[in-house]
Recover the amino acids of this structure.
């Protein structure tokens, strides 16, 4: 397992957009290390959310890395707009990218880290051919499209399998998990190898995003120390 610390990546999908700047600053004060931006197009997933304009707005209020998760049917057309908006990481779905190797290569060419995401029903084998050029692997622990869903436990096995595959090849991608993570399953998620942990409802649904972020960050550090 890598020595990198576990990082909380609050998803602003669950934030109050009438005060987005304050919502982002709150989780930053609570110890978040990454801001997660869920872009959905109403085609790849049954929801329509935010685009590069929101990412650019987030960039103006925080220096934290922007982790842009593209749940879209045609990810290639959005690489440059999100890079220009200030994304550090751009993650695309293996199920949506027709030419996945080309897409990940292009993300790197525009100066971003390249991430690849797996839906719950997609096996880890689907990304083996591109593991060498993936800076980040995102395991979905819910079916993408909406916040507040229940955690799918099989995601833990995927994390372990991905780490084993990466280590066998001498690779060290960031492992990220997204969906249904909260204080009840956080220790399991960290023990399985997750490093970037996305939490939306558990942070912004609490009524105190700064306090919730601080609590989860503290729990993550404790869980990491015990692995």
């Amino acid at each position: 397992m890598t020595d990198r610390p576990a990082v909380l990546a609050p998803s602003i999908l669950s934030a109050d957009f009438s005060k987005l700047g304050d919502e982002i600053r709150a989780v930053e004060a609570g110890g978040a290390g990454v801001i997660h931006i869920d872009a959905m197009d109403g085609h790849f997933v049954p929801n329509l959310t935010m685009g590069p304009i929101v990412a650019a707005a987030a960039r103006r209020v925080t220096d934290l890395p922007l982790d842009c998760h593209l749940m879209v049917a045609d990810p290639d057309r959005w690489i440059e707009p999100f890079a220009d908006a200030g994304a550090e990481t751009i993650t695309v779905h293996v199920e949506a990218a027709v030419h996945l190797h080309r897409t990940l290569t292009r993300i790197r060419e525009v100066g971003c880290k390249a991430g690849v995401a797996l839906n719950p029903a997609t096996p880890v084998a689907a990304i083996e051919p591109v593991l060498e050029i993936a800076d980040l692997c995102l395991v979905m622990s819910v079916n993408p499209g909406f916040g507040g869903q229940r955690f799918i436990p099989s995601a833990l096995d995927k994390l372990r399998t991905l780490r084993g595959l990466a280590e066998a090849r001498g690779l060290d991608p960031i492992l990220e998990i997204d969906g249904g993570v909260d204080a009840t399953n956080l220790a399991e998620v960290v023990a399985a190898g997750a490093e970037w942990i996305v939490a939306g409802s558990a942070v912004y649904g609490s009524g105190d995003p700064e306090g919730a972020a601080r609590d989860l960050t503290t729990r993550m550090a404790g869980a990491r120390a015990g692995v």
User: Anything to note?
Assistant: The radius of gyration is 16 Å.
